[in-house]
Amino acid sequence: MLLFPKQEPIKIFTCDTCKSIGFIGLSKCGKCHGMSSGHFIRGHWLFWSYPLTRYHLNLAKGRRVFNKVRFFTSLILWLNAWGWSAYILARDKSFLANLFNLNFWISFFSNLKGIVGFLVYLGALILLYLWYRVIVERIKKDQVEHFHYNQQDSAAEEKMEISDWAQVKKIKSKKRLNIADTFTDEALAVLGEAYLVADRSGKGAVTAEHLFYALLSSNRISNVFVRLGMSSGSLQKTLENVLGAVPLQNTKVDSLTMPLISGEFQQALFLAYEEAYEAHQEYVSVTELLLSAIKQSEKIQDILFDLSVDKAKLTNVVEWARIRERLYRQYMKFRVSASHRSTKGMDKAMTAVQTPFLNGFSDDLTISAQFGNLDTCVAREKE
């Protein structure tokens, strides 16, 4: 029995030259320019440009390792540069005697030279580089389109169908959106793991079952199934026996052949984006991938139905996980904003008059929020 009714598939336009990968070898496909597949909706060309191949996944993994090594190496160099400069200066008794003298520091930096000057300026440059790397790592990805309740596509946009890549190239760049940039790092890691599961299993294509199998290794998805009263590990074993999604540990991977992206896997990717859009999510997370993978596979739906998981239970728990994630992101955003607020109880930049009489028969909402006495507001988009 199916948990979800069959939906009309998304009309995805794919590139037959690169087999919907976006790359041929090490370079972008000359026909689709790396966009691999996509469809036109709501006046935008939504495409997928994140190559899922053995080479590109290993390259992405190597980049992550390299970035970590680069960061910690720079951190060690910075500590060494300023540590040795502090050691050299600490041996000078006159330096310690004038440690809290402002004029001494002004003359010190103006006359800084020699090995100490070299170490101080080198440490400063490394520190600036570390700051730059932290800023780059915190750059936000593109967000899912904002849901507009009253927005209706024009007749021309509704009837527009993509028939060739020359037509895609004529679409303005601001009307193009790479939905892979809206996926969280955790979601992209799950997609890579799904590909590797299919690759190690010797499969010719990556399917929704491989995606579901990889999702069960995610902590957030494990929590979802714990709420449903089952273990993700036991569910993975069921998949190994029923779907054959288990990786073959002792099988040598053929270096000449790699699995391709199946049609249902592509549908799951674009359906996950639509799930995030309909749920007013800022990013596509593993919860959206879970729903899209289940909707694309009748086998998975049959397994969940046999385990007494119906549509209502699944959607409610997924919504619970979404709310938790949304509250955490709001908390982090408000925490950063609150760091600039005065901690003295009254911000003189906002008011210069104390209100003892008003405080006698009313509550200060700012103070109440500071100590967590206000309930969290959820689902206020319509207001």
Fill in the keyword field for this structure.
globular, 383 residues, 4-stranded mixed beta sheet
What report would you give on this structure?
The protein is α/β, with parallel strands linked by helices and 383 residues long. It has helices spanning 54-90, 93-97, 102-110, 114-137, 155-159, 165-169, 185-200, 208-215, 219-227, 232-242, 263-278, 286-296, 298-306, 311-338, 356-360, 365-370; strands spanning 13-14, 23-24, 27-28, 37-41, 44-48, 176-178, 205-206, 260-261. The strands form three sheets. A four-stranded mixed sheet has the order 1-4-5-6, covered by helices on one side. A two-stranded antiparallel sheet has the order 2-3. It has a two-stranded parallel ribbon with strand order 7-8. 53% of the residues lie in helices and 6% in strands. Residues 153-157 and 245-250 have low confidence and may be disordered. The longest helix is centred in the N-terminal third of the chain and has 37 residues, at 54-90.
SSE order, one letter for each helix or strand: EEEEEHHHHHHEHEHHHEHHHHHH
Label the structural class.
Answer: alpha/beta
Rounded mean pLDDT score: 82
Give the strand content. 5-15%
Give the total of beta strands. Answer: 8
- For the report, how would you describe the main beta sheet? 4 strands, mixed
Straight-line N-to-C gap:
39 Å
Our Rg estimate from Cα atoms comes to 28 Å
Count of separate DSSP helical elements:
16
Within the largest sheet, what's the order of strands? Answer: 1-4-5-6
Principal-axis shape: globular
Poorly predicted runs are 153-157, 245-250
Estimate the helix proportion, in percent. 40-55%
